[in-house]
Amino acid sequence: MAVLVLDGAKALDVGIAAHVFAKRPSMPYDVRVCGERIGTVEGWNGLAYAVGYDLDTLDWADTILVPGYRNPADTSTSRAVIAALRAAHERGTRIAAISTGAFTLAAAGLLDGRRATTHWHYTHVLHEQYPRIDVDENVLFVDAGQVLTSAGAASGIDLCLHLIRRDHGVAFANHVARRLVSAPYRSGGQAQYVPRSIPEPLGDVFAATRAWALDHLLDDLTLTTLARHANVSPRTFSRRFAADTGITPMQWVLRARIDRARELLERTDLTVTQIAEDTGLRSDTNLRRHFGAIVGTSPTAYRAAFQEHRPSPR
Question: In this protein, which residues make up the domain named HTH araC/xylS-type (predicted)?
Answer without folding.
Answer: 207-305
